[in-house]
Write a structure and sequence with these properties.
The structure is a single chain. The protein is α+β, with helices and mostly antiparallel strands. The chain folds into two domains: about 80 residues, Ubiquitin-like (UB roll), CATH 3.10.20.30; about 80 residues, [2Fe-2S]-binding domain (DNA polymerase, domain 1). It has six helices and five strands; from the N terminus they run ββαβββααααα. Strands 2-1-5-3-4 form a five-stranded mixed β-sheet, with helices on both faces. A hairpin with a 2-residue loop joins β3 and β4. The chain is globular and about 50 Å long.
Length: about 170
Amino acid sequence: MSVSRPLSQLSLNVNRTERSVCADPAAPLLYILRNDLECNGPKYGCGLGQCGACTVLIDGVAARSCVVPVRAAVGHAVTTLEGLAQGERLDPVQQAFIDEQAAQCGYCLNGMIMTAKAFLSMHPDPTDEQIREALRFNLCRCGTHVEIVRAVKRAAVLLRHAGEQAERR
């Protein structure tokens, strides 16, 4: 016999937009993002928070949305892969992954990009070893690790360049 839980009206800030959903507060954030809010960047991978495919940013910190209950996101800024771009202009991390052709099957890309974005906000000039350490819990089954590390290095340069341009304005 299955016991249904009561649904609640929840307000979420997703990709800089206030959204309202009626959901079980204990439901995984991933399910709400994908099924209710149509954010398809985060992927269902393992469902255990171990592979990284579902990674989002919560207040700028990388989080595995398959193990975060939606109630924990209330009152916080949630950013998905879709929310990194500013209109048609890709985020420098997204652009770097394209420039370095750091995708094969693409399933891990959401987690790699979102983790890299959070990491680079704290480490703007990382070494290859620091990048590998930061991404070590994001699983890539295709073996594009060399390209991914190159993409994160390029993203660091692009982000620094963007910061310098913003300072000049």
